[in-house]
Write a structure and sequence with these properties.
The protein is 0% helix and 57% strand. With 69 residues, it is mostly beta strands. The structure holds zinc ion.
């Protein structure tokens, strides 16, 4: 389940620049010819660094179930 965001400055709910740090474990499957195919990617941790409004550039706030009402 992913978070939703809202820009309090302009009311934008749909366009954001999100910077995320993800730590993943992957199974790298190489073909005989050396082509890589990444399989079984497992998300170990995920940290949202910044969420910035695409329209006005302000820092956006995470939209909780409470504030969505
Ligand atoms: Zn905005």
């Amino acid at each position: 389940m992913s978070s939703r965001y809202r820009c309090d400055a302009c009311g934008n709910l749909t366009r954001f620049n999100v910077t995320v740090t993800r730590r993943t474990a992957e199974f790298h499957h190489f073909s005989v010819g050396g082509d890589l195919e990444v399989e079984d990617q497992e998300l170990l941790s995920e940290k949202i660094e910044t969420v910035q409004c695409r329209w006005c550039g302000a820092e956006a706030a995470e939209l909780t179930a409470e504030s969505a009402l």
